[in-house]
Every structure is written in structure tokens, then in C-alpha cells.
Design goal:
Helices cover about 0% and strands about 45% of the residues. By secondary structure, the protein is an all-beta fold. It is globular, with a radius of gyration of 21 Å. About 35% of the residues are buried.
């Protein structure tokens, strides 16, 4: 996709608002962006054809932008409603009215998920699945107040994951269940959890806290819950790639921090930064696992996960000498002592 043309479609000069949301369809055919203030949505086809405009949404909370599970449905939303659009003709299909502030949980199977705040007193959330393209919702359960950074459910099994203060928590949803879900605490962070994301087929979970610490948890029965701890600097989680090998967080100075989970824990992450642009708020991985996208001002930056990025070894890694092993698969360093 020609990034220069994409930026040009979003406006120039005083018309430049900045990108508030980025969405990629599951089939990789569409890239959607939502502008910061007007909430105007632009839809860009993979073949490089002309951008398509979608009517803006009325929202004071940032707006919703996403796709249905099959990639043939665009989802936009405001404060208390979701609008569904068919693709590629961008025809309005239905509007889903909700009772209060909500979080959009994306598409799962043949339905869309919403987490609606049904009580202003304790912040209790109602979890519902909305069938596509029409039909009434099915209740999957209720979550008591205080949940943050919700992810899932990611079948199988249908686990909902979230933070509750410093605790990383999972809960199993059941169709038709209207009671409070039973929660299981995997463990705790040093500070409050700000985001969680599933890795691969839902067998592992990543969480990040306000201090930037990342923890990887196992959801396998009988296995130790905590698998790995990474020391980072960004407290906002962008997400994980489809293969579960890369994790991205927002870093300092409008950068994105890319973690390769196949590397040993002592390897430093890669910092992705465009110094000519002022902000990097939204982000997403593409469905093929080849790219990390970040919104910088009115541009969308495409970062290849395969690099070429430098691998930074922790000190003291060298100083006296280094050599590769004969097969080229290992590096030997010496600091004069070991």
C-alpha cells in the first residue's frame, strides 16, 4: 500500500488531524483509519485502489474501529452504539444500540462481542455476543467492576482475560450464563495492570503494567502460571502478532517497542521510532504476521517484523574479543574474566 498516497488522502496542511484508530481486516484486504477529532473513517483496499469514505461517528471517548471475523464487515461505533457496514460496497447493515459506555471485543466465530458497563456505581460489565448479520444478543456472563485491559475470549477455551489492580485474571464464559463469571488469578504485577493479550492459540497470555514490566503466563492446566518476565518501558500494550512470537508496546518519545519472544530473555527489544513525526498512538499487527503498523501523525508506518534489526546483547558482552561458532549459529564473547 503506498503510504504517501494514504497520508495524502487523510489531508494536508491545516486539514491534518492525526490518526486515532487503525484497523486491519482478518483477511488482509482492508486497512481502516479513524481521524482524531472528526472521527471520519477512511477505508483503503489492499490493491491500492481509491480510498473509501465512511460516515463519521459521534463519540467523546475515542470511537470504535474494527472488522467482523470474516473480513467482509466493517464496525464503527460511538459512545453507546455500533454500526455495521458491508464490504466492499460499504452499505449500512445495522445499528446496535447499547445501554451505556462499552468496549468492543472484536469478532469471534459468527458474532461480535461487547462489554457494556451496566452499573455506574460498581462498574459491572455485561458480556454479550451479537450474531451476524442480524439477531438479538446472547449473554455470556457478567464481570464485576474494576476490570481493565480486557482481551478475549479467545477460543478454545472461551477465556476472558483482564487486569484487576495488580492481578492478572482469567474467567471462563458460558453461553446463556447471566451470572457473575468465576475468576481465576494467574498472578500479580508490581503495579496496576494496563493491558493483556493472548499469544498463539490462547495457550499463553501477555500482560503489561504501569511500570512497563511484561509478564508471560501459561494457561495450560497443571503448568506453572508465570513463564517469563521482561523489563520494558512502555505501559501501553499494542498487541501480539498472529503467531504469538512478537509483542509490541508503546515506548517513550512516540516510539514502539517490539519484543521477539523467540529470543532469550536477556536480549534487548527493538525500538521503532520515526523522529520526523510527533505521535504514535494507535497500532496493530497485520493478519499475515509480516508487519507492525503504527499511526504517526497522519501517516501509517509499516515496520517489517523480520528486520533487519540489530540484536543488542546485554553488557558485559565483549571488550576483549568475540568470534562466531563454525556453523555461524552462535556468538562467543569475552570480557576478560569469562
Amino acid at each position: 500500500l503506498p503510504v504517501s498516497r494514504l497520508a495524502r488522502e487523510l489531508g494536508t496542511g491545516e486539514d491534518r488531524e492525526g490518526i486515532a484508530r487503525i484497523g486491519l481486516s482478518p483477511d488482509g484486504r482492508w486497512l481502516a483509519t479513524m481521524e482524531m477529532y472528526s472521527r471520519a473513517v477512511h477505508l483503503f483496499p489492499r490493491d491500492g485502489g481509491p480510498a473509501r469514505a465512511v460516515p463519521p461517528v459521534e463519540s467523546s471517548r475515542g470511537g470504535v474501529l474494527g472488522f467482523g471475523p470474516g473480513g467482509d464487515l466493517l464496525v464503527t461505533g460511538g459512545d453507546q452504539s455500533l454500526r455495521l457496514w458491508s464490504l466492499p460496497d460499504v452499505h449500512a447493515l445495522r445499528t446496535v444500540e447499547l445501554e451505556g459506555a462499552f468496549t468492543f471485543g472484536g469478532g469471534r466465530g459468527e458474532s461480535l462481542l461487547t462489554f457494556t458497563r451496566i452499573s455506574s456505581d460498581d462498574g459491572e460489565l455485561l458480556v454479550r455476543a451479537w450474531p451476524l448479520p442480524t439477531g438479538g444478543p446472547e449473554i455470556l456472563g457478567r464481570v464485576k467492576g474494576g476490570a481493565s485491559g480486557i482481551a478475549g475470549p479467545d477460543p478454545p477455551p472461551p477465556w476472558l482475560a483482564f487486569g484487576r489492580g495488580r492481578a492478572v485474571t482469567v474467567a471462563e464464559l458460558r453461553r446463556g450464563a447471566s451470572h457473575l463469571v468465576r475468576e481465576r488469578v494467574l498472578g500479580h504485577h508490581q503495579s496496576n495492570v494496563t493491558g493483556v493479550a493472548y499469544l498463539r492459540a490462547g495457550d499463553r497470555l501477555a500482560s503489561v503494567d504501569r511500570g512497563g514490566e511484561i509478564r508471560i503466563w501459561s494457561l495450560a492446566a497443571g503448568a506453572p502460571a508465570l513463564v517469563r518476565v521482561l523489563r520494558g518501558e512502555g505501559s501501553r500494550l499494542i498487541g501480539a502478532d498472529p503467531e504469538g512470537t512478537h509483542l509490541a508496546t508503546h515506548g517513550k518519545n512516540s516510539s514502539a517497542i517490539l519484543w521477539n519472544l523467540d529470543r532469550p530473555p536477556h536480549f534487548a527489544p527493538t525500538t521503532l521510532h520515526r523522529p520526523d513525526l510527533s505521535s504514535s498512538k494507535p497500532g496493530a499487527f497485520d493478519p499475515t504476521g509480516r508487519w507492525l503498523l503504527t499511526g504517526n501523525g497522519t501517516d501509517v508506518a509499516f515496520w517489517p517484523l523480520a528486520g533487519p534489526w540489530a540484536e543488542v546483547l546485554p553488557p558485559p558482552a565483549g571488550g576483549w574479543g568475540m568470534a562466531f561458532t563454525p556453523d555461524g549459529r552462535g556468538l562467543v564473547t569475552s570480557n576478560g574474566v569469562r
